[in-house]
């Protein structure tokens, strides 16, 4: 029996166990600050599989002084990182498997058909907050290690299993792991790519634009200047910057993506009285950063562009908008599509699914940006689950994909790290 | 000495007293629900002047069933109306003097140079919430009666002095006075017209438009539909309705007013996460109603116009906006510019100031709409103070105008009601 057949057989016979494991993780609502229980569960499993496990709460003091630290908090009590190392026999390439355990809040429960923390299974799908982003991917990682251990496979290279916190808030968990010295020849992050392979990923950061007007009574509104009307010019102006930036994107990995690096305006609020002319409107949004672009370059593009608003309307010459960068930020990342890990992953994908791998650039950021940029560890994103259910009510994952991903990852590990034959 | 000279002299010698009276009223912060003390002060003065005074809290139960009742509350404990009647000797025309005692809240105190409830005087101006809207006008009314009484003037027609509550919230105080049977041959309301005469007044009502989009992750924003972008189409669409309605306004009383009946959009809010495509935006505004227009006609114009949004963007055919009428509403009003009270007021204005009276249509509503429409009492608005400081920090009134207005009103009363010669 080939190793591939053995892995597939192992996955088939561990279906119930794997499903129950994901259910257990979904039932532990590991929103920010509440990750401990889920992390302890993972740490326990890794110890049982014989990995050398370290569990620690990131040091807020040390993180705070790091230029890439972004988080709404700097105390991580109750939010431990977990790293388990599976030492290789030597002479092979090492790999980091990185997944985050934090999930975003469930939002309005009234919009959920199932309890968001019940892990209910229906039609081959498991429902719940974090099912796709990314506890499903975490279970794929765990099944990968467990299958190889139980099948007696010994790898030449080290496998470093990372279950981190804070991905949803800017990556402080992975940053803490990097600051603790964890490095590898490459990294694999099973975020929900719907089994596509992402060597490149968009970065992003949040901005806030404040548009000023001049107040007046609504009955004589011509005496005022409506910040709502002026904000329409700003929205249009931002659209034009988005168009210019995207028309310059020639990377074939973005072929078919209508807006590779979007500038999303997510929030608008202004005025406080129906019969007054509003004197202020705030726009908040997310600016995409191209995989090879420096964050500072993108910031500067936006800042310069805002200065050109006065070409659209003289009002802005006297009353410029203010631009702030606030909240979250995700570092972009880029790995050469010719990188050996992509080749290995693609061939194993084809082996397992019979279909050609899809290689694209990611429309969103992951902790892979930090690993690639700061951790000297080229990170590739590949995992089960579909993005469009992430962060929304009725999030789910197709269980079949979770097991398929585990199978592909197990075979990738063997080929990447090397098999120690007996 | 002519009566005019006597009135002028009286005003000159009562300058300190009048200023102190306005100061006392401004120092009683008569915001909604807290009008009692200021109203008791007025009632006491009217009694001293020999008027038959009635003080009563409007009956919420009775008001609630009236089709023109608009208020955020239906209990008026602590908010009495005051009406004082000065019986004429007979054979003359009667006049209602109507002023509201309620003031809007002071807002952000940090933006006030003086304490908003101190009534500080500087450079001939008295500062404070309500100084212009409309305690200054109320003092003009009080000085008018006091001067005529002290000068021994006896009028043929009745004068009905009304100090009402709730004008700022839709006119429930004046409605209660109408429901209590008070009527006259005409009414004069000294709201801040900057001494212009307004036979016509714009009505207004508040609306809320909810624009729907479709949510998506900001990184793949092309999968969603931005309610912010769709709301820009709605704002533009409303502008076009405003243009159409205003280009049809040929009333010469609106000559020189660039937007006689504006549609103001005062509030916008939508989305709740910078990196999500917003699925909902709410617009709140104030729609002006022409003096001779029925409220229902204006509503229908807006409703029909919203249905035509789909001509601008097919999105609205499947996802129509919702339109609600909420909150406050002020009835429009129109008195024939040839009305005798206008002629009297104009001639007395010229007599006192040496300048020709300015007759215009008002860009905002007052309780005059209710008096004209429901109270069989044609109401004309004329008073001291300038609108653009009303409802804003550092509201003030020019004291000189307050005394001038009182002088003009006293002489108007004599001419309108008729003088009983001894």
Describe the 3D structure.
2 copies of one chain form a homodimer. The longest helix of chain A is centred in the middle third of the chain and has 21 residues, at 227-247. With 422 residues, chain A is of the alpha/beta class. In chain A, a hairpin with a 2-residue loop joins strand 4 (121-122) and strand 5 (125-127). In chain A, helix 7 (227-247) crosses helix 8 (295-307) and helix 10 packs across helix 12. Chain A is 35% helix and 20% strand. Chain A contains 12 helices and 16 strands. Chain A is elongated. Chain A has 2 domains: 3-201 and 332-417, Aminopeptidase (3-Layer(aba) Sandwich); 204-330, Alpha-Beta Plaits. A 6-stranded mixed sheet of chain A has the order 1-2-6-3-7-15, sandwiched between helices. In chain A, strands 10-11-9-12 form a 4-stranded antiparallel sheet. In chain A, strands 4-5-16 form a 3-stranded antiparallel sheet. Chains A and B meet through strand 9, helix 7, strand 10 and strand 11 of A and strand 9, helix 7, strand 10 and strand 11 of B. Strand 10 of chain A pairs antiparallel with strand 10 (263-270) of chain B.
Concise summary:
The structure is a homodimer of 422-residue chains. Chain A is an alpha/beta fold.
């Amino acid at each position: 029996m080939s190793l591939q057949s053995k892995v597939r057989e192992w996955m088939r016979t561990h279906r119930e166990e794997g499903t129950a494991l994901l259910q257990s993780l979904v039932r532990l609502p590991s929103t920010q600050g509440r990750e401990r229980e889920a992390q302890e569960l993972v740490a326990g499993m890794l110890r049982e599989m014989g990995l050398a496990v370290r569990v620690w709460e990131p040091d807020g003091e040390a993180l705070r002084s790091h230029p890439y630290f972004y988080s709404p908090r700097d105390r991580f009590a109750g939010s431990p990182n977990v790293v388990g190392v599976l030492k290789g026999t030597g002479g092979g390439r090492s790999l980091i498997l990185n997944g985050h355990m934090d999930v975003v809040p469930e939002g309005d429960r009234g919009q959920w058909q199932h309890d968001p923390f019940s892990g209910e299974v229906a039609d081959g799908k498991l429902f719940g907050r974090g099912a796709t982003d990314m506890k499903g991917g975490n279970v794929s990682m765990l099944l990968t290690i467990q299958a190889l251990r139980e099948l007696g496979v010994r790898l030449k290279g080290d496998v470093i299993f990372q279950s981190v916190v804070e991905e949803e808030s800017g990556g402080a968990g992975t940053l803490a792991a990097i600051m603790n010295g964890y490095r590898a020849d490459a990294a694999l992050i099973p975020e929900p790519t719907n089994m596509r392979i992402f060597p490149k990923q968009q970065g992003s950061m949040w901005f806030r634009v404040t548009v000023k007007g001049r107040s007046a009574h609504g009955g004589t509104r011509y005496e005022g200047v409506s910040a709502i009307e002026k904000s329409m010019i700003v929205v249009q102006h931002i659209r034009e910057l988005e168009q210019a930036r995207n028309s310059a994107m020639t990377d074939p990995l973005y072929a078919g993506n209508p807006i590779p690096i979007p500038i999303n305006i997510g929030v608008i609020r202004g005025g406080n009285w129906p019969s007054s002319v509003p004197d202020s409107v705030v726009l908040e949004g997310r600016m995409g950063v191209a995989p090879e672009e420096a964050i500072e370059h993108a910031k500067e593009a936006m800042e310069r562009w805002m200065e050109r608003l006065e070409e659209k309307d003289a009002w802005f010459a006297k009353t410029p908008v203010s631009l702030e960068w606030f909240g979250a930020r995700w570092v972009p990342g880029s790995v050469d599509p010719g990188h050996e890990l992509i080749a290995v992953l693609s061939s194993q994908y084809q082996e397992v699914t019979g279909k050609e791998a899809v290689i694209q650039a990611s429309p969103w950021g992951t902790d892979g940006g930090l690993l690639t940029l700061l951790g000297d560890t080229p990170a590739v994103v590949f995992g089960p689950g579909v993005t469009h259910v992430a962060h929304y009510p009725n999030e789910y994952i197709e269980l079949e994909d979770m097991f398929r991903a585990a199978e592909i990852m197990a075979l990738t590990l063997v080929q990447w790290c090397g098999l120690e034959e007996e």
